Amino acid sequence: MKLLVVLLGAIAAGAALPTDISDPVLLKYNGEGERYLPVRRDGAVHLVDTWLKASDLREAARFQPDAHNTYHLFTRNNPTVSQPLLLGADGLLGSTNYNRNRRTIFILHGWTDNILGNVNSVLVPAFLAAEDVNVISVDWSAGAGTINYIAAVTNTVTSGESVARFINWLMASTGTTPAQLHLIGHSLGGHKAGIIGRHLNGRAAYITALDPALPGWLTNNNRFRADDGAYTEVIHTNAGILGYIATLGHVDFYPNGGVNMPGCSEPVCDHDRCLHYFAESLATGGFTGTRCATFPGAMTGNCLLWGSLQMGGLRPKTGSSGIFYLQTNPAPPFSRG
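Above: the chain's sequence. Below: its structure in token form.
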């Protein structure tokens, strides 16, 4: 609760902020708790309004994901300089290093991030080092880059629908199958991965939500669901603050209780630590969770049920389900196992 405790006064002040009567509230996304939540961006803390207003929809309407989403292909033949892909451009696709025989990973960043941010700088090299795969990083910063967080939440849905259209085109053009797909997203991108999977009729083999966002999603019916893919896994590292607190997937992991990560001193670090845990899991496995009866039990480490499961990794653990707790080291290697 590090940052949250420091900002309680600011939150209280934010809750009293006047609402412009010309900007009507359409939906109270944050059905419980405070309306204004603190979020760190560019080294500063901003109070984010979690209620959907008419102005948010007007801003979101300017985002046209079929035109504004960009797709960057990385392979072992081009691990650091991407090759662009365009929806419907079969000729361009044929001139790239995309290989239909490999598994294909889609990486989805979160709010205010982009192709050069932490999500891609951590996960792209980790996937390519672990396996010969196609990695497609989706840059939707045209929709996620706004300081208007609820507009970004709205754009998460429309951008996800657009990515699903791109994947359907890619499969039709190349013969790639849903069994070869792994969708992985962080924060807003975590929910977006589920939205994409839902619009692929739940056929994607593997979907990973890395600390999917809490603000704007508590009562949002578009949030991540277990049946969005054949196997869905969620890793919670800042639950109840920046990340979603309750279970969402077939399998939910709560490392160190899911809120405060060893080696971190603020929620932004906790929220991002899941990226590093997952990247390490691709290289070594190593993160073994103990089964828990409930997510409150996982958050307190009170887990006495029989059974264990590895967190993350290259392959889906299809057929597995449950809630799991594990402990990590404060610095790399994070895994204790």
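The mean pLDDT is 88.
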